[in-house]
Amino acid sequence: MRQRSRRDAERHGRRAELLCAWLLRLKGYRILERHWKCASGEIDIIARRGRLLVFVEVKARDDWASAAESVSRQQQVRIARAANRYLAGRPALQQLDQRFDAMLVVPRRLPRHVPAAWSESS
Questions:
Q1: Cβ(83)–Cβ(100) under 8 Å?
Q2: Cα–Cα distance, 95 to 53 (Å, whole number)
Q3: What does the domain layout of the chain look like in residue ranges?
Q4: For residue 2, is pLDDT > 70?
Q5: What is the 3-state secondary structure (H, E, C) of the chain?
Q6: Which residues contact 43 (CB under 8 A, 6 or more apart)?
Q7: What's the pTM?
Q8: Residue 43, class by beta-carbon neighbours within 10 Å (0-12 exposed, 13-18 middle, 19+ buried)?
Q9: In terms of CATH architecture, what is 2-118?
Q10: Which residues pair with 45 in a beta bridge?
Q11: Terminal alpha carbon distance of the chain
């Protein structure tokens, strides 16, 4: 039973990420990667718009407050490390401005995009 609920949660999260990717596309971003993984961690969405490279964490929860609170400091550090690993292999992207965003997803609502949700140094 527990495994099934974990599987359902993963499916729900993937659907939320897909919805967020589409919303970012509508806002003019080009999706470079989804579910990018390395030893340091995973980045849900990596997108680019002009000279801006955005690393996006997607959080799907029952309400806005719990979604916003669910991006822990530890996760932020892991995502920043993963972003550095991603950039290490892509010198052309290192010259772009970089930002860490969050996208919050709750039932029956459009995702909420939070630009610059945190900085690497915070």
A1: yes
A2: 10
A3: 2-118
A4: no
A5: CHHHHHHHHHHHHHHHHHHHHHHHHHCCCEEEEEEEEECCEEEEEEEEECCEEEEEEEEECCCHHHHHHCCCHHHHHHHHHHHHHHHHCCHHHHHCEEEEEEEEECCCCCCEEEEEEECCCC
A6: 33, 36, 37, 55, 56, 57, 79, 82, 83, 86
A7: 0.90
A8: buried
A9: 3-Layer(aba) Sandwich (3.40)
A10: 34, 56
A11: 39
60's tokens = 């799907």
CB 4 within 8 A of CB 93: no
Under a CB-based contact definition with an 8 Å cutoff, are residues 117 and 100 in contact? Answer: yes
| Closest by CA position to 66, among listed 107, 34, 36, 101 | 107
Q: Which two tokens stand for residue 55?
A: 């690393």
Residue type at position 99? R
| Beta-bridge partner residues of 99 | 54
State pLDDT tens for residues 82-104: 999 999 999 999 999 999 999 99
Length of the chain in residues, anyone? Answer: 122
The answer to whether the CB of 98 falls within 8 A of the CB of 90 is no
